[in-house]
Amino acid sequence: MEAENHNPIPDQLERRILHGLSCEWSKALGFLSPEQRKRMRLPLFSLRNLKNRWGYWSEEKREISLSRSLVRDHSWDAVREVLLHEMAHQMAMEALAGSRETPHGPQFQMACRILRANPRASETFSPLDERILQAPSLPSDKRMLRVKKLLALAGSPDRHEADAAMVKAHQLMVKYNIEQRQGGEDRDLASLFLGQPALRHFPEDYALANLLLDFYFVVGIWVTAYVPARGKMGRVLEISGTLPNLKMAHYVYEFVRRFINSQWLVYNQNRGLSRHRQTDFGLGILEGFRWKLEATRKGENANPFALVRMEDPLLKKYFSYHYPHTAKVKAGSSPRDPGVIQDGRNVGENLVVYRAIEEKERDRGLRIGS
Length: 370
Fold this sequence. Notes:
The chain is mainly alpha-helical. It has helices at residues 11-28, 34-39, 68-73, 76-94, 106-115, 128-134, 142-153, 159-183, 203-215, 243-267, 275-298, 313-322, 338-348; strands at residues 44-48, 55-58, 63-67, 189-198, 219-227, 232-242. The protein contains 13 helices and 6 strands.
């Protein structure tokens, strides 16, 4: 990693980011026992121009420092991953009496387990968003490579060819995941934010989240996370699963969101409808797309395994460990316009998710200054 001497972070935003690190640090204390929390003192936080590392913990200064390029160029969940790693170093020394051991010794490993921190998230280890979204598919994942090619075909202007390609892609995804679970191997699981943390989410955001959890082989939960642009704690959808499934769910999430927004601009061009009607239209699109996916599962030519909902014990164990305390979130409701919902539903029934084989993933950084 090169020295950072370009695109500086504005002072006001840097102060908000430092405040966010303090908020995330305090939230992570919830994983600790009461006795361990008593031993942990809030450290100083700083952003520095670092070489060859994403962050470090200084026992002498009682300071956690993170790389400016990390917070400037990467997503907040990637920033939080490094923060928890450095917090584990602090915890090993202050709460677990690990000051005499090597930097990544047994007490540090124990602190990582307690904090749900990644023990490898330091030095030149790739940030979370890069590891999942930009990593190429492995040649061994032949079925997922085939899914990718089918989604490219789904961009065909021929409606029947496009629908057939998307149906086949979903059938292959089902078969791939069932084989993975039945194989019993130790799969690599991770967690990833979808979208940016925000103070408010709309009903269509929750509907899209539920669609992804029902059809794309990931589990998810709305978690508390810092919103750098607002300087407050908000919430964001965090999904967990295998790396190929996380990458696919992220792509579908971004694709469907862009589709809803573009279709709304066309629909509302001469209508002047309110934000509530935009929600109705988005909910309608998602209902129509859900109906299409359910029809794919139940169709005469569908994979027979598609109707089988298999519980993934490994993913269930991972989820229980990372989210020991969960609560239900109820989205707010407001009067709906059945006509706008139906118009959106008609659009959603024609939605085909597709991608170009060589398409690059979107930049998930904080987009400082944008």
